[in-house]
Amino acid sequence: MKKTTLLLLCLVLWLGPEAAWPADVGPTYAVVNCKVVPVSGPVLDNGTIVIRDGLIKAVGPTDKVIIPEDAEIIDGQGLTAYPGLLDAHSQVFLEPAREEPASLGRGAPAQPQPAAPQGFTPERQAFKLLKPTKAERAGLHRLGFATVLVVPSKGIFAGQSVLLNLNGDKTEAMVVRQPVALHINFTTERGVYPSSLMGTMAALRQSFLDAQDYARHQTAWQASPRRFKRPEFSPFLEALVPYVVGKRPVIFTCANQEDIKRAIGLAEEFKLNVLLSGANEAWRVVEAVKKARLPLLISLSFKPPLTSLYANQGDELKKKAEDEIYPANPAALYKAGLSFALTSYGLTKADDVLKNAQAAIKAGLPREEALKALTIHPARFLGVEALLGSLEAGKIANIILTSGEIFEEKTQVKKIFVDGQMFTVEKPPPAAAGPAAVSLNGAWQGKITSPMGEVDISLELDQQGSQVTGTATVMGNKRDLSEGTLNGNALAFTIQTEIMGQAMSFAFQGTADKDAIQGSMATPMGSAEVRLTRVPKD
Amino acid sequence: MNRLRCCFILGFFLLAAVLAGAEKMPSLIAIRGARIIPVASADIPSGVILIKDGLIEAVGPEVTIPEGATVIEASGLCAYPGLIDCYSTLGLAEIGQMPQTVDFRELGRINPQLRAWEALRPDSMHIPIARASGITAALVAPSGGLISGQSGLLRLTGWTPREMLIKAPVAMHVDLPSFGRSMGFRPAAAAEPSQHFKELEEAFRQARAYEKQKEFAEKSNQRALPDFNEAAAFLQPVLRGEIPLWMSVHADKDIKEAIQFVQREKVKAILYGVSQGWKCVEEIKKSGLPVVFGSLTNMPAGWEDGYDALYRTPALLAQAGVKIAFSSQSSSAAKDLPFHAAKAAAFGLDKREALRAVTLSAAEILGVADRMGSLEKGKAANIVLTNGDILEFKTQVKKVFIDGRETDLETIYEQLLEKYRKRAPR
Amino acid sequence: MKIRKILFLLAWLGLILAPALARGGDLLIKNGKILTVTRGVLDKGDVLIRNGIIQAVGTDLQAPPGVRTYDAWGKYVIPGIIDSHTHVALSGTNESADTDTAEVDMADVLNAEDLAIFTALSGGVTMVHTMHGSANPIGGQNVVLSLKWGRPSEEMIVPEAFRTLKFALGENPKRANLSDSEGLRYPQSRMGVNAIIRREMLRARTYMEQWARYLAQKQMKNPPKDLLPPRKDLRLDALADLLRGKLVARVHSYRADETLEFLGLAKEFGFKVACFEHIPEAFKITQELKEAGVGTSVFIDSWAYKIEAAEGIALSAAYCTRQGILVSLNSDGNERIRRLFNEAGKTLRYGRLTEEEALRLVTINPAIQLGVDKIVGSLEAGKHGDLAVFNEHPLSAYARCDLTVIEGEVYFDRAAYLQEREEAAKRAKAPKQTGGAR
């Protein structure tokens, strides 16, 4: 009798309610009569997807899938289901990290090459900087994105990224994986070492060597703590060791073809586990990229890099490069037999990501490949293929329902599921009509940064409709602005001044919103970055 | 009585000493046997130049040399007119990066009152070096600001600024944005006339209004005399047509606007710089304005202009019939004037035209063609004797005459070298 | 059987070696005035380049069919000009945030798309020593490039060149022209500059000693159990290489006195100085320079821009040459680089060098200074097919470069350039097509 009870008990437990841990019971959905593009398998003309507990319970032809009783039926007639898109290099939800500009101490003799240069913060985590907003999430949903890799942007060692499912307002609930990778930019510090790209390269190498050295010392000390002096704790090197010694992924952002070669060189020299991001010029070094066999996260920004010939030989060529030549980057990589992800990195307007994907397709990238580049490939490169990237039973229920083929211009995303929660996609707010998008009146303060250094700039702006007048003060010289215009958020003006007796014009072009102006200024020494914030009235 | 006689005798000896020590300047000089390049006329394979009281008395293949003339044998040499630099900072800048030694730049936008020649340093080490290149006259001009001030023409010899001055003022200088020295700088593109010309128009309008007020007050006694207005007062010579406006312009849009501006304002003008002149040859030709080029070591505005933009523009304009001249745009590199002309000749400018552009055309543009720029009777005896083509590197300049006086060709180059040549070997 | 095996082996070897041999182009220059620089002048001669190497310089040379022939009738052919000191083809010039940055390497920041490369080619320049700037007493490691416009950056590096390290003395490293608000730093004096150089050399010596001890201990039969290597310091590694003779110093100096002091430092620490850069006062110390066997790389007549250049007489380059010093003329930038042949021409006037002496200043002399004289610097069989063709004698003020060739490939062709420009102008004037490409 006892045995039978035990057996029965086991049977009940086995056949009984499924283990639900944690025990939150979300809604169950069944999307029926839908065209289904699983990515990992053939397209279903009439399919059904069952979503339960945040996962895809089942996906298949409608007549073959059993719909649970508690499922809310979503009619997929006329819609197409795709895996939620994955952006593998996003800057969404990030509050710009406020940095105090470091300066070399006056009268300080040169130091031995610093082991942890000021401003190197590989320990910075994107996760800690997140400030999610509904508007940004809604914007991404509208484009079909369910997952983003949020990457810190500033600095040489920018920090560590976090993979988020855009499932709501709570940061912790969004995390899929944290941290994901260490991100490195080929940029420079300002005013402190390394203040030039050559310095950055040397500093990167020295940092990797120091991380190896640190790990060696730590290991030796931990093995025989009584034999050695305790090695000095270094948060910088602690943060680096898992990536340099532990082979966790390192992602280099490559602005141009030389950066790609630099990243490949460093990967080989230090045997790092490297992915390349950005790389919209990869088509110019395909052979090297192919040989290196590194995963590629290719930016959908088609602006030719500042170093590129395409950017320096006149406006006509620059436009052609942006409209025709660089959009062919993904196609060129595909033809070379490479698989890659496509990202929004470098785009100023989020909406451009699909628009530019369409341009890439027009330039020769097959549609299926473009779709894979936004789903299964980034999932694989980021090590979450088991969880995301395709419509398969057992994977996370990140699904979008669209009104048509995803890369068609008129297609809209109607509904999106993230972690099994359904969001209805809203129409975008009416675009800021005409010139009065923002009011720029008042005082602004900021910096002009160029390879030659940094200079303070302040503006007093007076805006009437699309006309902008006022003054700019640079290095103590106050000058009137000329040719100032504001179209929507696009701001442009010119400063006329004298340098060493020569009259010169400096043209600014950029964007302005309520509190920030940013853009670039053409100077004789090249293009300079300009950033200003509003001076609070007090 | 004795004392008086002593003084008299002493005085006499002093006078004699003074007279003896005074420069023995021969008033009659004949340069004989040189190949003469008068510029204004055909070359003379072998001839004589007769100098009397600082002026050219005669030039020709057969010239009778009067008794008592000092004869300078010059067979095997070439005789050229002294070269004229149409824009320099000679005497106004000694060490470029030391502001204490730089005097051609002021602060402010509207400065017609500034006179470049008033800041001149005749002892500048750069002047003998330029002279030793065969340059006998140079325009010194101010810059900085929109209206920078007045330029003057100097002879490259003299103990004091006044001794050096040939003509002042020569022109009123206006400087519009340039391209700087690095390739690729792009000025702001604007659809309407740029701010600079508006500013100029306003300054001219105010100057005219001021003058009208002043004249009326002076004549009629009915109105009060307006307060002195510096900018307006010093612009009058330009408005009256006495001196030309020297417009330093580079972008082709600025060049075209400058032409329209001077036509509207009915003032005389000279175009300077003209980096993108190759783009608007027709407009420049139609305007009838002369063009002076800046240093040909400046860079083109951008890649699209072509690597040879500045080199080929002189030929393009000269072929279209525009009067052109060259300038060094420098003090320490003033000596390179002839080589700018040669560089233009390497890119299409006729060699004779190139020589004319640093001699007679330069004089014509500066308004002194009656006194210099060629070897002709009645002009100043500014003559350079060389052992070859004056525009060539390998040519040595043997003698330089300015106003009939042979000048000293020793420079700091030779002085320093001699000093260290004497260092005894260790 | 054996023969077949051998043939097979040879064929296989051929396949492996073929890519290595087939670098560079083929070109025959005919009927020009050939100024070889080291082997005299041919009034009417030819230069034959095969696979990027000069096969022959002579008269009545023939090329196999298919080889491009360039008619140089009435023109002058010289070896490609070599610029011994410039800053082109780089993304950045100085790492100015520290006073010793020996660890930085210009090879890390190459920019093959710098428009200045084309500017240089238009002036007949085929090879450059592109360098760290003069912001620091000890700058960085430099690189020699062949200006193969359009090729990837790594193909431009010339591996045969000496490895060089940039030093700077005088006003630039002591930041004489910066104001207090722009951030002063030590050194502010020439004595500070020297103190830093000496200190870094002493640190490097100590570093070398630390590593030597470690390696010695490691080699022992029973090395100590807690033996760990010292920290690998890339900055001190570079200086150690200098002290070991693997790097040579290229020193930016102006005044005669600071130059002599540096020679003293070099002697104190036993490292080699290849060349002083700019050194306008070289004419004051020709004896010492000659004894030290150090060359100079200078401007001909660019002077009086700083106080330390106030005695930089134009006669210096020629005088030093005549005193037996190895002198080269450099551009130090992207403007002068297009007229180095004019700079050489000026030594005919200032100092009366002979034509050959003047040409050497921009060809074989810089080649020797850079350690590449076995492969470039003169037109001789066996050297790289690097040359430039001029419409007039290159030392004439009327000269213009019409063709620039590197390893037998044409990288600048004025005639083709003009034709392209004409065609582009025609296209621009042509009526725009509707419905076509933009």
Give structural notes.
The complex is a heterotrimer of chains A (538), B (426) and C (438). Chain A is α+β, with helices and mostly antiparallel strands and 538 residues long. Chain A is 25% helix and 32% strand. In chain A, the strands form 4 sheets. In chain A, strands 1, 2, 3, 4, 5, 16, 17 and 18 form an 8-stranded mixed sheet that branches. Chain B is α/β, with parallel strands linked by helices and 426 residues long. Chain B folds into 2 domains: 112 residues, Urease, subunit C, domain 1 (Roll), CATH 2.30.40; 241 residues, Alpha-Beta Barrel (TIM Barrel), CATH 3.20.20.140. Helix content of chain B is 31%, strand content 22%. Chain B is built from 12 helices and 16 strands. In chain B, a hairpin with a 2-residue loop joins strand 15 and strand 16. Chain C is α/β, with parallel strands linked by helices and 438 residues long. The chains are: A alpha+beta (538), B alpha/beta (426), C alpha/beta (438). Chains in contact: A-B, A-C, B-C. Chains A and B meet through strand 22, strand 23 and strand 24 of A and loops of B.
Summarize the structure.
Chain A is α+β, with helices and mostly antiparallel strands and 538 residues long.
| Shape type of chain B | globular
Query: What's the CATH superfamily of the largest domain in chain B, by name?
Result: Metal-dependent hydrolases
Q: In CATH terms, what is the architecture of the largest domain in chain B?
A: Alpha-Beta Barrel
Query: Percent range for helical residues of chain B?
Result: 25-40%
Residues in helix, % of chain C: 25-40%
Q: List the quaternary state of the chains.
A: heterotrimer
Q: Which ranges of chain B are low-confidence, i.e. pLDDT below 50, for 5 or more consecutive residues?
A: 180-193
State which percent range the strand residues of chain C make up.
15-25%
Whole-number radius of gyration of chain B? 24 Å
> In the CATH hierarchy, what is the architecture of the largest domain in chain C at level 2?
Alpha-Beta Barrel
CATH topology of the largest domain in chain B: TIM Barrel
Number of domains of chain C: 2
Sum up the overall morphology of chain C in one term. Answer: globular
